[in-house]
Amino acid sequence: MDIVLLVLAVAGICTFAASKKTAARIGGLVGFVLFGAIWLMTSFAVIIPAGYAGVVFNRFSGVEKRVLPPGLQFIMPFAQVVYPHDCRTQSISFNNEESVSSDQQVVHTNITVNFHPRIAELNQLFQEVGFDYSDKIVAPVVREALKAEIAKQAVDRLLANREQVSQAIRDYVSHKLGERHIDMEMISLTNVRFSPEYQAAVEAKQVALQQAEAKRNEWQKAKVEADITRTMADAEAYKITATQRALGNSPDYIRLEAVRKLNPNAEVIYVPHGSSILMPGTVPGEKAAR
């Protein structure tokens, strides 16, 4: 674009110098001034948008140490080229990322990482890696951290230690990206899934545990019922023993036992204490014949 403007400006001054017609000379002069002014503005100045920073490449000395902030910046035309770069938050998501646990179980995970380049070190990042660092640096580091941490955990402890695993991945990724002039903002580990075979085994184990718990509850119930029955039987036995002991100490009961021994066929009539009875062959109020 700068070269096109320069050519148009040169063409305008040439027309102004070579033409003898007044209109052509005026048109050539206007073209030279207009395109020359635009060329000067675009060659000597560059506007860095908000949220961006500019890396300056010098055709004679290479990448310069300074990084241009947002706003209007002046440069040397032809000698310097500015490469603006977005320094706002960037995000990469990995879906269904496969890892292997310490007990050789396949684990699938979704992971998202947010990051941004360090503005003060943008020139070093551009010189060492370029601006495609998300594919060259960030993605490999995240995958490496995920696989390394999952490999340290047994699959049955992975969900319980999820926060510990996430923190370890966060620390590793933050350290590695920091070495390459990138700041990690956030990393999220979500939707941890296991192989269908392992999920089926876990479900079968849960069913077995539930059945065992039901059997244990039934056994506990039977034990409680047996204890209640035993207690009731003991109470009844104690009651019978106490009754027998009380009757054994009664004179009337002793006489009754004596009668039963003398005449086992004797009929015994139990009469409430203090009540009167009618004997066979007697009239009420008369004494029985002796």
Structure description:
- The protein has 290 residues and is α+β, with helices and mostly antiparallel strands.
- The chain has 3 domains: 2-83, no CATH class; 90-194, Band 7 domain (Tetrahydropterin Synthase, Chain A, 2-Layer Sandwich); 196-270.
- 52% of the residues lie in helices and 22% in strands.
- The protein has 8 helices and 8 strands; from the N terminus they run H-H-E-E-E-E-E-E-E-H-H-H-H-E-H-H.
- It has helices at 2-18, 22-44, 122-128, 133-150, 155-158, 162-179, 196-248, 251-262, and strands at residues 45-48, 52-58, 62-68, 71-74, 80-86, 90-100, 106-117, 182-194.
- The strands form 3 sheets. The protein has a 3-stranded antiparallel sheet with strand order 3-2-5, covered by helices on one side. A 3-stranded antiparallel sheet has the order 6-7-8.
- Helix 1 (2-18) runs antiparallel to helix 2 and helix 4 packs antiparallel against helix 6 (162-179).
- The longest helix has 53 residues, at 196-248.
- The radius of gyration is 52 Å and the shape is rod-shaped.
- The model has no long low-confidence stretch (mean pLDDT 78).
- What Rg is obtained from the alpha carbons, in whole angstroms? 52 Å
Helix content: 40-55%
Q: Report mean pLDDT, rounded to a whole number.
A: 78
User: What is the H/E order?
Assistant: HHEEEEEEEHHHHEHH
Looking at the overall shape, the CATH architecture of the largest domain is: 2-Layer Sandwich
Largest sheet: 3 strands, antiparallel
- Number of contiguous helices: 8
**Which outline best applies?**
rod-shaped
* Counted beta strands: 8
Assign the CATH class of the largest domain. Answer: Alpha Beta
| Cross-sheet strand order for the largest sheet | 3-2-5
How many domains? The number is: 3
Distance between the termini: 156 Å
Strand content: 15-25%
Uncertain ranges:
none
Per CATH, the superfamily of the largest domain is: Band 7 domain
CATH topology of the largest domain, by name, is Tetrahydropterin Synthase, Chain A
What structural class do helix, strand and pairing data support? alpha+beta
